[in-house]
């Protein structure tokens, strides 16, 4: 018998879950990705104590310190122990978003303003607790604009280990951050950073990579290059940097320095203006070489305006190139409508309405920055295996962000989710395939939810891995015997603060997951499910 349980939170939100036979409310809630506060699963701490408004249940086993007889008689129960015997309504003594970790907020001091050209500034800030701000190269933060109630979003142009944080901004006539930096900013000013945000970041380089930047979309790619400069390059990386005019070109000397330090790294500069002094002119797509695209066995990272992103996509389609991985971040700057053109792969934004004033540069959040701002982070993958590899890459990023940052309570939740996923597995077989896919999804979702970066979490959801697993594994029988242990070993690594072990575990788990899917897809093909 399955019962419905209504979880009523303090902020007025009610969520509904289903409890199966002999299933505790806590276990069912975690499968549904609703994290009731919990410090144990043994009825020993009382952290999850809740009031049952209606319904019958078996209260389970617990100690007096966790729940007194008087409290039990009054209708209180421990969700970690209670098993429904009818539909229930529970009052959960916390808000509905209590399990979510908010993005970090950091007080920053403006250290330097750099006028890189007539159209582009750079600025550097410092924060006292620098070690507390972990970010992945390519991500961004929201930056408060002093003297206003507004904030703008900028990608880091500095690497993830740099003491000082650096950013690029394209100057616009009426932009609030532009006006501040150009007219009133001074060293020592205080700003607030919120983040990190975004799912556009450098993954492990497993094949040749092509980096494409439009204007200040160069910023996140500079952060990626800084990380690459500290590693041994296993594959060639080429960057094409596109701008509208010669005056928009910045940081070319920095790119030249990276070219001297990173084996296999090369770059081209492309200027749209036909009167430019640059050697290469026109659209960035005019300067793609066969080696850059490697017959599709390539990872492409593109940060630029929507016309550029769509122009590159159309060019790849026309050439019959389907890259293994295509990561992109679209952003639009508001410019006068008179400047708008309908061009392919325009290196600078040219399509925003005249009424707008400013949109953030290399990244835009859903803040009230500009109603005209277009913003989208996305990724596309050529095969099912590439989708799983993409999930692994996102998890490796989330792991870097959250290593040594999970609270004891979060670690306890993480272990519970790992154990729940294991209960649906037997000796290299599924005991409950649907139960496994649900609890497995909750386990993988946990790290993304913990980052407080909704864009990273949404990137994971958009991959479609979960939908494939739901569809294919329902017909599966065999499961790689290491899957359940992988989950537990990953939690162990987090508890020890062992990033190397966690990385090894995530990579190994990805191979075990793909092996399980391949086996199930062979069986599924006989049931009409295409591989």
Helix percent band:
25-40%
Helix run count: 14
Strand arrangement, largest sheet?
17-16-15-14-18-19-20
**Termini Cα gap:** 35 Å
- The percentage of residues in β strands lies in 15-25%
As for the number of domains, it is 4
CATH superfamily of the largest domain: Nucleotide-binding domain of ferredoxin-NADP reductase (FNR) module
CATH top level of the largest domain is: Alpha Beta
Main sheet record? 7 strands, mixed
Indicate the multimeric state: single chain
Total DSSP E strands: 20
> Whole-number average pLDDT?
86
Structural class: alpha/beta
Second CATH tier, the architecture of the largest domain = 3-Layer(aba) Sandwich
Query: What is the molecular shape?
Result: globular
- Report low-confidence residues grouped into runs of 5 or more: 334-374, 525-531
C-alpha Rg (nearest Å): 26 Å
